[in-house]
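ok trying this again, last paste got cut off
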Amino acid sequence: MATARLDRQLRIPGWNQQSLAHARIGIVGDADRLASLYIVSAAALGLNQLVVIAPRLDPALIDTAHQVNPDLHLVHVEGFFTHPVLEDVFTGCQVLVDLSQYGLANKLLLAQGSRAHLPVLRGFVHVLADQQGFKIFTYLRGREWQELEQLVSPHNLPGQPLDDGVLDIIVAGIVLEETKNLLMGQPVSTEVIAYQRPFLPPLLNHPRICVVGAGALGNFIGLGLAFAGATDITFVDFDVVELTNLNRQVFLVDALGHNKAEALSARLNQLFALRSRAWPVACDRDTDFSPYHIIFDGVDNFETRIILSEKCQAQQKILISGGSDVAAGQVVVYDPAQPGPTPAELLGLAGIVGRRRTKPNLHPRASCQYRPDPAVIMTNQIIAGFMVEAYRRLLNGDQPANIFYESSREKKF
């Protein structure tokens, strides 16, 4: 069953699932959601042995992790990493993941990594004056350079952590991508991966939202919107859940054979008290989006993305369009209040479709059963996180730049 669930990533050239399955990962978390998000995604990827020191974990996310990966062996030591004696908890670990926000843990883990020749992955969300963002860095012995100072929190002891679930989704995805690279002997970033923008106050009023596509992107778009406080969401998808979806569509784990939109809506309503609903139809030129103010495009075929661009342009709707593959993705925003091309126009999707030898495929099941392409969880959660980040910036009066992410580049976006 595990092989079938992981089928889409096993199709990636050079993929080494055994290096993930047999690895032991040590994680230090804080009193926020970041460690829990990393755990659920790591479980979906097929990491089976995780040891965590954190004061608490999110029960809903940890339950999802165990459901999506029955082989997961998770050891949780409740508390903060504040003394060298706790280093013994990480005996046998190949990678240390530091998701904490207090300097004592940062220093202890860097010291342990240096002594034991272990890589230390550091990822955290931060607020500096009126700026907010995140930083991620992979420490290897020999990288004792000045920029390491950026990775040590100015607050030496545990305090009230910054809990930004949307940025946490992105950070967890990038840190897991770096974890995978370390375990498979692939290159990791040699520079600090950083993102920063003006501080965003919490949104008090959310418009009616339609998320087209309840697959890999849709799962994390829905989660990010829940973290952002949105509740009035409609998920559109005609597809049904298959076993091979579950290496990345984590909230559909108990819904094999059921409609994706209905399963995702029900699961997120249960976990996060949303008022979301499902619309189990195939999106085509007759689909009516007039009741909605903002459309999220989380589909994986160009024909439907063209339709969404054309309909949002005609009806003057905001469209946040995301696309992803194994190692790259993009977020393109169409705001009718600002001059500019639609996502389909910017990406040249009509030309791509026109050059295909076969007829456009608008089959409602085209995404999975008829297109068994390689796919992993990390790119999907990173792109979905940036899609919700664009939504928050738009509603706060900011004009977000389009995001073009590529995991193999030093400058990721």
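PB: full thing came through this time. Residues 165-183 form the longest helix (19 residues).
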